[in-house]
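Predict the assembly for these six chains.
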Amino acid sequence: MSTGGAGEPSRTGRPRDETIDAAVLTAALDALAADGYGGLSLVAVARAAGTSKPALYRRWPTKQRLVLAALEHQVQAVEPPDTSCTMCDLAECLGLFVTAFEAMPPGVLAPLLADGQDGEDLREEFMTRLFDPPRDAVRLTLARARDRGDLRLDVDLGLTVDLLASFVCYRAMFGHAPTTPREIEAAVETILQGIAADYPALLARAQGEPVEVGPHELHAAHAPTR
Amino acid sequence: MSTGGAGEPSRTGRPRDETIDAAVLTAALDALAADGYGGLSLVAVARAAGTSKPALYRRWPTKQRLVLAALEHQVQAVEPPDTSCTMCDLAECLGLFVTAFEAMPPGVLAPLLADGQDGEDLREEFMTRLFDPPRDAVRLTLARARDRGDLRLDVDLGLTVDLLASFVCYRAMFGHAPTTPREIEAAVETILQGIAADYPALLARAQGEPVEVGPHELHAAHAPTR
Amino acid sequence: MSTGGAGEPSRTGRPRDETIDAAVLTAALDALAADGYGGLSLVAVARAAGTSKPALYRRWPTKQRLVLAALEHQVQAVEPPDTSCTMCDLAECLGLFVTAFEAMPPGVLAPLLADGQDGEDLREEFMTRLFDPPRDAVRLTLARARDRGDLRLDVDLGLTVDLLASFVCYRAMFGHAPTTPREIEAAVETILQGIAADYPALLARAQGEPVEVGPHELHAAHAPTR
Amino acid sequence: MSTGGAGEPSRTGRPRDETIDAAVLTAALDALAADGYGGLSLVAVARAAGTSKPALYRRWPTKQRLVLAALEHQVQAVEPPDTSCTMCDLAECLGLFVTAFEAMPPGVLAPLLADGQDGEDLREEFMTRLFDPPRDAVRLTLARARDRGDLRLDVDLGLTVDLLASFVCYRAMFGHAPTTPREIEAAVETILQGIAADYPALLARAQGEPVEVGPHELHAAHAPTR
DNA sequence: CGATAAGCGAGACGGTACGTCAAGTCTTATA
DNA sequence: TATAAGACTTGACGTACCGTCTCGCTTATCG
């Protein structure tokens, strides 16, 4: 499962120094945070990690793979909550999504994907390793909501996931400021109104069983509509 | 108007050759489409445009500015429709938005914005010149809808615009496939359900006054479920 | 005789601005003194002279010709003395030669001659305008000395002139320090001993009719031989 | 010895390819001979040598250093003869000096020294590596002559060396034609007459023990006149 | 237990693009 | 027609990074 480093280390000969993997990934993250994807120099990363260029290329075939591994190195799993309060779950799940993306250095994801030299394989790998987990968490949360009857049956789950995920990414890419919990909740409310079987009931349930993610501000916006 | 090129051409001396501006921008677009942002070589662009590097740097101070000008060179204005059918207007407006972004070579926007070397000024310029026009068209369409009473009064217009715009950008950046009219309509419907004062009325109006953008498929999905 | 500027100004149309010639030559000399031949930028010269590049090229076909004209602009004629004291005349004449060359900015002559692009014509022009005058002064001085019987009849005047001139140039090119009068005199004495019909007589005459150029140090070196 | 290239190659890492040094220096000499110093393009040299620009800059920090190394690469050591015939030795030694300088492509030395960008260090290096060896050979020859009593005791050896060296350089720089052995001998005779303790004796010795460097023409000029 | 295979740091290798600068020519509007 | 201004093409400059390679050395495992 050790996704990160080893291309395919040989069984014989001197074994790889495992500490180098971590040192390089950390150094790469620092460099990415400092100079962005375009300004990333592999020789600088190697020096900062106390190693050399060939050691990098022994582990990752291209610059892109190294960056991908570095990003993967720092994300933590998104564990979708399941409190049976659809609105709360969705807000929290999306919050985790946002957190995962905002933890990455800004201005790295997009150039990485667009670098082209590594073609579709890289995009696929990126999706599998970085993007799908939080996305699947959102999808799972939505599926649970549908299964318990909170959503209309004709709702296109894929489209809804895209709507939510795109909002997160939009901010991560163009956003001047980070996405606040307040904004997340507002987005969730708007989307839910569009897909809920009985939105007022969901809202009532959320007010009755407030989640820890700022339940008070959560409903302030729509309170007058009640 | 001050479209693409001239940084600030002097009033005296030999005037700039206007044909060079266009030739360079066209060549740059071709090169971007062929090799992506990272693979863009200014000397290659200059050669393809039948001119030289200094002529480029005389017009655009950095690679980013040139690319920005090239992108701006090919987008056409988004004229928001106003047929008083909220759903139709919104779908068409968003379709224009998508078209504008999909006309750009893929994998250019993101690295351009993330290149960093030009800092915040570039992001601002990008927003002003490329992003805001279609965005404002959507906002205007939404504002018209609200003014004619189609939307709830407490709707956050900014948030809604972001939700729609982010969906477009998401596809333009991560999208494997282009965004189809069908997807646009589905997204519009979902969002509208979340913000409409009386969604069934909007839907009925759209069905009574079908727009040219595939009105039949448009409502097929949800109409039967009602 | 106006050697400097005008390539061949037309008789009709707007007449050339004569002040530009002088301004350019002066600016060129300043620039040469500051940055040497290799660091000379014509556009910088034009700006410093308050004019433009085309105005320069209208007057001098190449960079080399401009430099040549600039050097010529500042040299003054070498008037060979004729006091019938061979040693004094020669020393003074050579001193004028040295002065003429040391007045020129260092490190300009040689690169100018070696620039090649202007071929033999430039070398010829250089010789005619800059080098031959002081050289001819030395040759004249030597010829006068021979005519009055101070030199052996078989002396090769051309060779002797070259020996003396080369010493001057050597210092102007490789010399770390300027050539002092003392060194000039020592060189003259050595050469004279090699070509004089009766060196002791010349020496005695120089001592009897001391020239203003430091007569005391002049003979100090050889005094013990007396 | 430390001939041409390596600035200061590190002891660790991949060692430099020695063949590149030679290939570059040879290519540089060819280019210098073809286009002169001013027309020397480092990228052209690199291409001609089958290598790349960075490989050049790794070895020589500036264009000047490369040219200096190239010149040094082709000069051979000047071994001063010691036949106890002062006149013969001096003539041969000076002939070697001339040969060494005329082997260099014309019009390179002077612009190299005048390029300025490398300052005094370059001039010093040039002196040490190229100029001093033949110069010291002449000085040694003169010192031997003095030690065996052939020269007057008050002769300034430094000045004499300068007189002879300057004659060589003068021709190498301004010379239209190469310096012939005949001219060398004439110059030696003239100078020797100025510094010999007993010139007729030296001349007689040279005639009695003729050297291989054209002894017959050597004295033809002056012998009859006596 | 010694050979061998692969790891290691270091850095040179050929390429390629960068952004700048100068040369010499041209094209304006103005005088 | 000359002028000032400046845009034009060409091409070298010196630097930086890429991904590969070669070195001398160290460290395991296998024979």
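The first helix of chain D runs from residue 18 to 35. The radius of gyration of chain D is 21 Å.
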